[in-house]
Structures are given as C-alpha cells and as structure tokens.
Amino acid sequence: MKFIIKIMFIVFVVWMLVGAYLINTEHEQAEVVMGLGVLYMSLLFMPCFIYYRYRDGKYKKYILNDQKLKEAFSQQGKK
C-alpha cells in the first residue's frame, strides 16, 4: 500500500508539472489537465492516503475526551 501511494503521489506531481507547463505555453487544454489533476488528487489519492495513515487507530491519541481535558487542566494549574 505504501508503494502504491508513493507511485500515486509521483503521478500527481508529474501531472501538475505538465499542467503548469501547458499553462505557461498557453495550450488550449491546460485548464482541463490541471482540473483533472486536482480531481485525481481529491477523489483517488487523498482517500487512499487517509485510509493508509489512519487504518490502525493511530488517530486516537489526537482525539480529545473528558479524561484528556481533565489531565490538561490539572497540569496547567501546577505550573
């Protein structure tokens, strides 16, 4: 999965570079290429990346709950 995400990112970067080149050369389809690149990133690359990063529950340490808030406020008063 990590290898696939790296390949997808490289494809996205190359796609955006080609789109930027086409815009600089004032090609008639430059906006279409850039738009499809953004669509590719938002609908294919980002969901795969988010799934890969958070599939093991690593995000749980970043979620605030009552226990973490109480600990934070109690430590703030000790300083």
Description:
There is one protein chain. The chain has 79 residues and is mainly alpha-helical. 77% of the residues lie in helices and 0% in strands. It contains 3 helices and no strands. The chain has helices at residues 2-24, 30-54, 66-78. The termini are far apart. The model has no long low-confidence stretch (mean pLDDT 86).
SSE layout and pairing:
Blueprint: H1 2-24, H2 30-54, H3 66-78
Helix pairs in contact: 1-2
Structural key phrases:
mainly alpha
The profile of the biggest β sheet is:
none
Compute the CA-based radius of gyration.
21 Å
Strand segment count? 0
SSE pattern, N- to C-terminal: HHH
> What oligomerization state is this entry in?
single chain
Distance between the amino and carboxyl termini? 45 Å
